[in-house]
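Contributing new complexes? Match this layout with glycyl-adenosine-5'-phosphate.
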Amino acid sequence: MEKLISLAKRRGFFFQSSEIYGGIQGIWDFGPLGVTLRNNIKRAWWRAMVELRDDVVGIDAGIIMNAQTWVASGHVENFTDPLIECKKCHQRFRADQVTDPRHVTDGGEWTEPRQFNLMFKTFAGPVEGSSSQVYLRPETAQGIFVNFINVLNSTRLRPPFGIAQIGKAFRNEITPGNSIFRLREFEQMELEFFVPPAEEMKWLDYWKNERFRFYLGLGVRENKLRLRQHRPDELAHYASGAFDVEYEFPFGWSELEGIAARGNFDLTAHQKASGKDLSYFDDIKRERYLPHVVEPSAGVDRTMLTVLIDAYAEEEVRGEQRVVLRLHPSVAPVQVAILPLSRKEPLTSRARTLAHELRPYFRTEYDDTQSIGKRYRRQDEIGTPYAVTIDFETENDQAATLRSRDDMTQIRVPLEGLRQALEERFR
Ligand code: GAP
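Output block (do not edit by hand):
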């Protein structure tokens, strides 16, 4: 983890937020490579969950919602963690998560646990009072439930169908940590899939398999992934089944995504609290019902951490250490690096022209600083699958060297055929 975090900072994947002021716990900023990696992850999710399906549509709801939403959903009452405080040093912990040995061995010097609500509060409008108090959403899911009828009425979709959303969520976690694993500001990718009640278990089974496969598609190693079914005592009272996709992080197996069968809990709650009819009438079967929901809910940040950790490798090459990120080409922030062997003409112009030609097709970076060896190392460290080197021969043979990140093989490829050669390798 420490090595990855230092690489992330050194190369520009993520930084502690507002670092020059000492940072702020649980919040991170994403640098030039980080934002690209995140966008690639979100794009892969949106493509798989929305664009490649005819039964899912997307929405983008507000981060701040009518505060009644969170009363109805149960978050105002129940979205809490047990908080305890060490009486000696006044540090605060989650009662179910005290692992700090200094405190555990202290023994008994704790305040009684109290329920601490994780929602961030703020005010909407110029008056600060209880009537203007609002919350930053702690999940994107509720933005979908409150729009269920709007989507049903404005599209031709009928259950089983889904509504997907990607967006920021906020939780005032008592103990954020493990870099970008547990954050106070994070991003979710959620699907609420609305089904006839009798089909709920079938769809839970379907989505848990789909979601597991998604991570394999991002290049995550299969032996580091598992599906874990929730025990009955872990399930929320309304849930009839749930699975986690787990990854073996350096700090142990942990949740990457949750897939839950939520029954009609949310629609029932919003129907009751709003007084609006949220039921669906099936005019073929002539029956009216509140659809049940299967919800795959993933974190962008956790997925980013997973692909980075999974890709990280240290190798010995001819007596030298190399660090390499074996990122899948679909998520790699840079897919091809164009490197003139020297900073001399006509090498640099030829290389710039090539970068310009390839840029519409691949995420392309031009780099003419430092020695070629150092530039290869940098590209290895940021996970660039291929580098193209323009050398003194290029002018004569109209060809360049194509170097592979993973096996470091180098082959000569005609400039004309480069785009195709790369496309074949990324397929
Ligand atoms: N709507 C259901 C829901 O929000 P959750 O298990 O609380 O379920 C789903 O969250 C996913 O969101 C998690 O699997 C994780 O990837 C991500 N997530 C939740 N809390 C997070 C946090 N504090 N920091 C980073 N990611 C978080």
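Reviewers usually confirm one structural detail per submission. For this one: The chain has a mean pLDDT of 96.
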